[in-house]
Amino acid sequence: MPQEKKDRLIRPLLQLQRLGLSIEVNGWRSAIADASQRLSRSLRNNGVAGTLQRMVRNPKAVDKVKAPPQIALFDRIHGTDTSGFIYGAWLSTLFGTAYIGSSPSSLRPALAALPIVHKDFTFIDLGCGKGRALFVAAEFPFRRLIGVEMAGELCEIARANVVTNPEWESRISIIKQHAKDFVYPDGPLLLYLYNPFFAPVLRRVLKNLERQLRQSPRPVFVLYADNPRFTQVLGAFPFLRELSETSYPLSAEDAALHALHRTEEWYTLYSADVTR
After folding, report:
1. How is the beta sheet containing 220-225 ordered, strand by strand?
2. Which of 65, 101, 105, 152: CA 20 to 30 A from 41?
3. Measured between alpha carbons, how far is 99 from 196 in angstroms, rounded to an integer?
4. pTM here?
5. What distances in angstroms separate CA 193 from CA 14, 68, 97, 131, 206, one per listed residue?
6. Does an H or E element contain 242, and which?
7. Angle, to 10 degrees, between the axis of helix 3-26 and the axis of helix 28-56?
8. Residue 18: predicted pLDDT
9. Cα 55 from Cα 169, distance rounded (Å)
10. 111: how many CB neighbours lie within 10 A of its CB?
11. Residue 98 to residue 266: CA distance in whole angstroms
């Protein structure tokens, strides 16, 4: 598809994602009222033709996505491609929020602080993107590491990253699949999520997890990173018990390139108990 035509299609998808996020956070009435106000303001300022043009193509938004990413320190050290920010609407699936690589400087201490024996657990990154969290987790003695990603283009990049390191290649698997359908392996699990899904999808992912754990109980922990608005979603599932919520500062290098201009990231740890 020509790039210009693709750009015209992307803008409406971004608008729909913005509306969906507003509904999750504020409810239907507030979201529709906000959308109506923005539409009225655009009609006053730009007229009908200008408003339609902005809905189809917003050069600033498109250029932001197309701009070449600054290369993160992690990639410069390891020769990988995990940098950048990609809107979910630009990917081959609309189920995800956006691609942002986990910050190694906050993820390392979060993994180190886990109340587990790492070698007994399989690390599973749901919505693994280009795989950076998996590569950071590989610094710990997890028995196995699995990345689950629906977007085919991100899967290809993650797999190309894996083969750059023989140790990663022997321990890490990248699976192209929707997380709501993923069949979890036997044994203790640590599930990692870096804000990968909108709330309706997250609920389906958690229902799938609960169903499988009731069929085959085993020790499971969920580490949810960057969780400002989805605490309520996870809290609605009685089988998940919140253990801790901790913030870790980003290094100067990670903070300088963070797409959302963060200087720290929050990690919420849950234990799964299907007897509750």
Report:
1. 172-176, 144-149, 122-126, 189-194, 220-225, 264-272, 240-249
2. 65
3. 8
4. 0.77
5. 22, 26, 12, 12, 11
6. strand 240-249
7. 170
8. 53
9. 44
10. 21
11. 18
Contact 118/142 with Cβ under 8 angstroms? yes
Q: How confident is the model at residue 199 (pLDDT cuts 50, 70, 90)?
A: confident
259: its two tokens: 């797409």
Q: How many CA atoms does the CB half-sphere of 95 hold within 13 Å?
A: 18
Reading the block at residue 165, the tokens are: 């390191």
Look at residue 3 in the predicted model and tell me its pLDDT.
Answer: 44
- DSSP annotation of 89: G
DSSP string of 93-147, one letter each residue = -SSB-EEE---HHHHHHHHHT-SS-GGG-EEEEET-TTSHHHHHHTTS--SEEEE
Listed by start position, the domains of the chain span: 3-66, 73-272
Was domain 73-272 assigned CATH 3.30.160.20?
no
> To which residue do tokens 């083969």 refer?
163
Q: Residue 195 burial (CB < 10 Å; 0-12/13-18/19+)? A: buried
Q: How far apart are CA 4 and CA 75, in angstroms?
A: 30
The CA distances from residue 189 to 5, 22, 41, 86, in Å, are: 43, 33, 50, 28
Q: Answer whether 246's CB lies under 8 Å from 267's CB.
A: yes
Q: Is 202 exposed, middle or buried (0-12, 13-18, 19+ CB in 10 A)?
A: buried
- The per-residue pLDDT for 169 is 96
Residue in the structure block whose two tokens are 């009685």: 238
d(CA 47, CA 50): 5
